[in-house]
Every structure is written in structure tokens, then in C-alpha cells.
Design brief:
Alpha-Beta Plaits, 101 residues, four-stranded antiparallel β-sheet, 34% helix, alpha+beta, ABM domain-containing protein, ABM_dom, Dimeric_a/b-barrel, single chain
């Protein structure tokens, strides 16, 4: 991986299927966004949380992507689906792998 980013979406119990559908519709655009190498999805069933494991050419590419998603209203669509609203969405920006440790 070049630049690892982990994004976690804690769904309300009753909206997990809707969140899956929204991400299924949105992720093709993510995967084709400039600088995106890959996006893998995982569900942590014990907490109804969907995790995206993303790999980006640079963290600047990922920041540009995030700005685009905010501008195009994805957070507004996520707001009613997430436990705690859009502010509960968590992005962990790990960056490049350290190979000297």
C-alpha cells in the first residue's frame, strides 16, 4: 500500500442495509477517482460498522477526493444512516507504510 486510509461508518441497526446500498452506489466513483489505487470493504457485525480500507497514490489525492465528496453532498446522504450522524464517521489517515520498523 502506498497511503493507507481507513474510513469507518457506524450504521444505525435499522439503516445498515441502506448504508450498504448507498456505498455500493458511491464506491465505483471512489475507485475511479484520480489517485485511488483500491478500496476494500469490511463489516464489523458486532457494531454495525462498515470499514473502508483505502489505498491512495498520495494523501493529497485522498484529500481532494474527500473535498469532492463533501461538495457533492454525500455527507448529507449519510447523516440519517449513521449512528451519531455524519460527525460519527471516522477517517484514520495512516499514510505510507513504514518499512524500517
Amino acid at each position: 500500500m502506498k497511503n493507507l486510509v481507513i474510513v469507518s461508518f457506524p450504521a444505525k441497526v435499522e439503516t445498515l442495509d441502506q448504508l450498504k446500498e448507498l456505498l455500493e452506489a458511491a464506491l465505483p466513483d471512489t475507485r475511479s477517482f484520480d489517485g485511488c489505487i483500491s478500496v476494500r470493504t469490511f463489516i464489523e457485525e458486532s457494531s454495525n460498522t462498515i470499514h473502508l480500507i483505502e489505498d491512495w497514490e498520495t494523501l493529497e489525492h485522498q484529500a481532494n477526493y474527500l473535498s469532492w465528496r463533501i461538495e457533492t453532498g454525500l455527507l448529507d446522504l449519510l447523516e440519517p444512516l449513521l449512528l451519531g450522524g455524519a460527525s460519527s464517521l471516522k477517517a484514520t489517515i495512516c499514510g505510507p507504510e513504514l518499512t524500517d520498523i
